[in-house]
From TrEMBL:
Protein name: Small ribosomal subunit protein eS24
UniProt entry tagged with the keyword Transferase: no
GO biological process, one term: translation
Family note: Belongs to the eukaryotic ribosomal protein eS24 family.
InterPro entries: Nucleotide-bd_a/b_plait_sf, Ribosomal_eS24, Ribosomal_uL23/eL15/eS24_sf
Amino acid sequence: MDVDIISEEENPMLHRTDIRFETTHEEATPSRLSVRDSLAAKLDKASEEVVVHELNTKFGMRKTVGYAKVYDAAEDALDVEQQHMLERNKIGDEADADAEEA
């Protein structure tokens, strides 16, 4: 999957960068997690620091346009993001699983 960054906007108050991106894919629309991992690899960040908010694919097209927030640290994402977005992006699940086992 090829990921191209369309625009970046710094948001220092929330310790993040807002990114609009476009991805080209061969098969069906890629999953949120695969896009997150590809974007994190391109930006040289950890997967837990990237939160994909939206993916839009037009019918029949092989391009998806999306919006993501890239945080300076995973803790910043946990502090700012809404719980349902963290669940969709599988962020913080390891900490929750450890707490349930204890």
